[in-house]
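As a warm-up, study this chain.
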Amino acid sequence: SETSYIAIFDAGSSGTRLHFYVNDLDEDSGELAVSEIEIAGKSKVAPGISILSNNSVAIANYLNPLLDSLHEVLSSNAIEPENVDVYFLATAGMRLISKKAQKSVYSAVNSAMLAQHLNVKNIRTIAGWEEGFFGWLSINMISGNIQSRERVVNSGIHTLGYLDMGGASTQIVFEVEGSEVGEESASVHSVEIGERNYNLYSKSYLGLGLDRIGIQLKAKPSCFPVGYPMKGGSVGGWDFSSCQKAISSVVSNVSTLPEKSLANISFVGVNGFYYISNMRIFKADGAMLRIEELQ
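Now compare it with the structure written out below.
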């Protein structure tokens, strides 16, 4: 068998997370076994790296706890740093800043990693549709809807839809059939998994994440608790109807989804959708909650 190692730095808008994977490829059968090694040290740092643009020293200090954790994994498993492929993939937080600022951040990230003798393969901001796709792929692999070496091409749609509310953006992804996409064809991407092709509607809404939507509504007292101190000396004055109108003006009519495609698809909501549904008021206690139950 052939073994390879991958370290992924997932740079989100609210923090950067480290993951470490071991890939074991059976050269005879072609089967690939992927396992994740638990990070014993610090596996997440906050806040998002985008706020550190133009400060290379701060970026190096920001990454040090994660790099220290990575080296602990390598030393405990007798793995040489140069044998690890390192990917630093950023999402919506970095999409909010200019290309020039992104370049400055990534130059500092690259320098910090090369100083640790790591084999840096890719440092970049992934597109919104990619961010959604990776999440869609994860939930459908976990649920068994997609097999890693799928050869049988079944007719119809058998995958789950995916909703992801992050800090700076929200993603929606679902499988479609070619004739159903209509005006939204630009948001449909064809991906090959195993030996099957999937047409996916994958779209990201920059600015509609939990943190960014709050920033857009910071001047709306009706969306904050009564008496909550706000900037400018005003205070919150919670009113459901008024807040609903304010939110609707931000999120309504941002896109037209191909409704026919949605009819028979079950969706899974993660991250912000999960956190909100598990607030005390809904009494979910960490369990999966259906939309019907919330209503």
